[in-house]
Each structure stands twice: as structure tokens, then as C-alpha cells.
Model the fold of this input.
Amino acid sequence: MAGDAVLIPDDRAFSNFKNECNSEDGWNLTYNKSGISVWIQILEEEKSLHKIKCRMLCKDVSAETMYDVLHDIEYRRKWDANVIETFDIGKLTVNADVGYYAWKCPKPLKNRDVITLRSWLPMGKDYIIMNYSVKHAKYPPKKDMVRAVSIQTGYLIQSHGPSSCTLTYLAQVDPRGSLPKWVVNKSSQFLAPKAMKKITKACLKYPDWKHKHNPHYKPWLYPEQSRLPTIPLSELSIQHADSLENIDESGLSEAKDERCEGSDDEGAN
Done:
């Protein structure tokens, strides 16, 4: 995304994202067990800039349920323990909106947040949700957070029938800071697989939860249900990383309580 013009992704952008999710050229496999694989691409080591890709086979989850879970912001607040705050700001088109997301980072790192333009598209039996960072004047960086930059982040969901799918998560995020090496290692070896397992568990519980919480409200499928205000593209600009504060956290050691988390298996929520 060159310059400051904010563009809503077109079909070619979705196809390019899908191709990168499926390609393994130039990727280094760092984790492969229990049906979950994680790859890393180091882009600029001195800036902690890297891409991460996770793929997981979900044998008891339909692509449709996975798509709903990844969209449903109310449900995310329930199952995603890393969420500090998340909300939608406004809609751009029937399949694009702008939102805020803040998440917990491993201690003692500062927590991060982003403003992103998110877009989504069903492609036959597959689904894509992807985002990149934008700026909105009403939501400047906060003093107690580091504003990160999503260069491109998203999910590819591929159906394998009525009760099975593959989820691929692809992320290129500039954390705005020089991070210690243990952070990248922990992301690929522990945090990413753990997050994928949590998504699966969330999917298994979603039908019962949704039955009790606005069961027919799915604006990502039925745009006419959306309650979001429409915002013009002119209110947005590209979030360039070099315009944000860059902090050096490379010398920080992992907190003891983080190191002793033990198993990457989570109890039931």
C-alpha cells in the first residue's frame, strides 16, 4: 500500500493473500506438531520485523463456524484472553470496516494496539478476512500503549466438508520497537500454537453461545444488519510505521511468571 491513499482491497489483493497463505517458498518451518505448523520469515532482524504464518487442521469445525467466530466481536471478548479492548469504528462498504484492537504482550513488554481497515470475502468454499493499519484522527496513539502497524494480517479458511476446515493465519506486523529475540522465538514456539488451539476451542463452544446471544445477528453475512456508521475513506490515511514512536525493548528479559506458564494447553473457559 504505497503513499497515503487508503484503498479497499480488490479481488486481486484477496487472491494474492490466498497465494501467500498457501506458499511455503522462503518460509522457515519452526513448529510442526498436533496438526499445527508455524513458519517464520525474518525480514529485518534489527527492527524485529518478521512474518509469521500458522496453519491448523480443524477436524470438528466447519469453515462457516470458523468464519463466524473470527468475525464476532462480542464473542471475541469472551474467548480471547489477550484482548484488552476491541471495538468497531465504522463501515466503509458491505465487506469492509475500520476497528480498534488492543492486546496484551508478554511481560515486561508494553502492550500494543492498532487501528485497522478490515475486509472479508467468501471465495467459493473458502473465506478470507484480512486487514492493514490506517490512521483515524479520532483515535490517536495512547500514552500507555505502543501503536503497532499491521502491514498485512489475516486468515484464510479452507473448507474440507461440513465439519472440517483448515485455518491459516498470516501476519506481518511492525511492533514499533526493537524486541528481544526471545519474543520472536516464543511467538512461533508457544504463543502462536496456543492461540490456534484457543480458536478451535472457541469454535466448538460458539454454536451454543450464539444460540443465546443474538442468534440471527451476523452483519458479516447480512450487511443490512450492520449498526455501524458509514465513514468516508477521506477520514482515513495509511499508518506509516516511521511516523510512530519506536521504542527499544531489546534488552528486556522475560518475566518469571511468563516463563513458568508451563503447558500450552488451556483449561476450559
Notes: The two ends are 39 Å apart (CA to CA). The helical segments are 11-22, 63-71, 73-79, 181-212, 256-259.
